[in-house]
Amino acid sequence: MGSLHTRDPELAAMLDAEVRQQNSTLAMIASASIADPSVLAVGGAALSNVTAEGYPGARYHPGAQQFDQVEDLAVRRAKQLFGAQYANVQPHSCSSANLAVLAALLKPGDTFLGLGLDAGGHLTHGSRASVSGRHYNALSYGLDASGRIDFDRLGDLVLEHRPQLLIAGASAYPRTVDFARFRAIADTVGAYLLADISHIAGLVAAGYHPSPVDVAHLTTTSTYKQLGGPRGGLILSGQDHMAPGPDGRTPLSRLMQRAVFPQSQGTPSPASIAAKARAFAVAAEPAFGETARLIVLNARALAAELSALGHRVLTGGTDNHMVLIDTMNVGLTGVVAERALEECGILANRNRIPGDTKPPLVTSGLRLGTNILAQRGMGPERMRDCARLLHTVLSGTRPRTDTEYLTDPALVALVREEVRWLCARHPLSIDTTAGVPVDLIGVGT
Ligand code: DSN
Predict the structure, then answer these.
(1) Is 46 helix (H, G, I), strand (E, B) or coil?
(2) β-strands 349-351, 54-55: how paired?
(3) Nearest residue (CA) to ligand 1, atom 7
(4) 221 CB less than 6 Å from ligand 1?
(5) What is the pLDDT averaged over residues 64-75?
(6) How many CA atoms lie less than 13 Å away from 147 in the CB half-sphere?
(7) 171 lines ligand 1 (CB under 6 A)
(8) pLDDT digit string (tens) for 169-183?
(9) What is the CA radius of gyration of the chain?
(10) Ligand 1: which of 28, 29, 31, 127 to mutate, judged by most atoms within 8 Å of the beta carbon?
(11) Which of 70, 137, 259, 360 is 20 to 30 Å from 350 at the Cα level?
(12) Ligand 1: which of 123, 132, 225 to mutate, judged by most atoms within 8 Å of the beta carbon?
């Protein structure tokens, strides 16, 4: 057969370069984490060759015995990890999961409410750029003057518009989400509550953020962000899994089964489901809980250090893994800040912030996350170094336009060197061939 390097050196070189980049950059992308090597390996398993529509025991193709066992295992582990009574592990992403939930519970034109995109919501929470904002009467709620969810206004909006569904969850919100308060508001008009915990699923699993599973009617999440799983999504339900759907009869769990297959997806991705099963097991290990603890402590420390250095930290701090800063406070757009940091080996993404006047590709903010810093074994004491490096780059960057800038080559070299040192001191567990730990796949054994 030969190795990938022999058979496809062009592709192998790209994959090797990616491993080098991940090892040698300080990634503070809030939506990213490093999958355990066993998760990566299982995601490439020969199970991927199986085509089997349907669910375990009710497939539309033969030869799915092993896949049935694997999917049952993934469902069992997901339920156990989140204390859920229902789990669907087939969604190809959380966006797919959210759209499946919307399609199952709403008719085109029905009303739902989600956090606005500029306030930190996700595309599938009703943005006009997504089908979620086009097929439904999607309305937004927002934040109060302190940058926290404006529950008073939300309550008013709900009474005024009487939505069929309310979405709680965000892509850029650094504070604890009060799911119980969302549920109380949804109940005032008999609306369903969907909690999207994509960004905080690891903290929820480890007990560092309140769980919505028994509070919301349905909970969705990505499996690759904080859960460290493969690219994919998950739908969960707790004590409301038998609550009736919009027809007043069909239980939500049965509706969700149909909502994913056949209503919105065809064949599932068997190897991804196996990798989810593996990731759920990893997330149940004590080491995952310790990382979750560090994620929160690090984010708090990073926010405090950045504030002390004069940066405007949105909401004044954080309760989760995320720190949002207003880069216009130091005269930089989000995209300039992102590019200048990347040049120095630090990855963090531009983000729109409340009241942003810059276009989405430019923005006025930067979103930082501590998932990977904690996975590297860094603790809060290291956040002083990280904040100092961020500050050095941001304060040393001279904007020329909203998208162009000048940096001092000596400063870039200095920061890059320190980033390399930090990364070497806190290595990742990616020590593989082209990022694929072939010894763990067991091909041909
Ligand atoms: N939702 C995007 C993010 O938060 O970065 C990607 O999943």
Answers:
(1) helix
(2) unpaired
(3) 31
(4) no
(5) 98
(6) 21
(7) yes
(8) 999 999 999 999 999
(9) 22
(10) 31
(11) 137
(12) 225
User: What is the atom index within ligand 1 of the atom nearest the CA of 32?
Assistant: 5
Q: Find the length of the chain.
A: 445
For ligand 1, the distance from its centroid to the CA atom of residue 293, given in whole angstroms, is: 22
Burial class (CB in 10 A: 0-12, 13-18, 19+), 248: exposed
Exposed, middle or buried by CB within 10 Å (0-12, 13-18, 19+), for 92? middle
Looking at residue 244, the DSSP 8-state letter turns out to be B
Atom 4 (ligand 1) nearest CA: 171
- Could you give the percent of the chain with pLDDT greater than 70? 96
Dist. CA 47–CA 259, nearest whole Å: 24
How buried is 225 (Cβ within 10 angstroms: 0-12 exposed, 13-18 middle, 19+ buried)? buried
pLDDT on residue 442: 39
Q: Whole-model pTM?
A: 0.95
pLDDT tens digits, residue range 214-238? 999 999 999 999 999 999 999 999 9
**274/279 Cα distance (integer angstroms):** 9
Answer whether 321 contacts ligand 1 (Cβ < 6 A): no
Residue 231 CB coordination number (10 Å): 16
pLDDT at residue 434, rounded to an integer: 46
Q: How many CA atoms lie within 13 A of 203 on its CB side?
A: 28
Q: How far apart are the first and last CA of the chain?
A: 14
Q: What token pair was written down for 13?
A: 């070189």
Look up tokens 């500050």; give the residue.
Answer: 391
DSSP string of 140-159, one letter each residue: EE-B-TTSSB-HHHHHHHHH
How does pLDDT run across 378-430, given as a tens digit for each residue?
999 999 999 999 999 999 999 999 999 999 999 999 999 999 999 999 999 76
Determine if ligand 1 sits within 6 Å of the CB of residue 31.
yes
Per the structure block, which two tokens stand in for 211?
A: 């769980």
DSSP state of 238: -
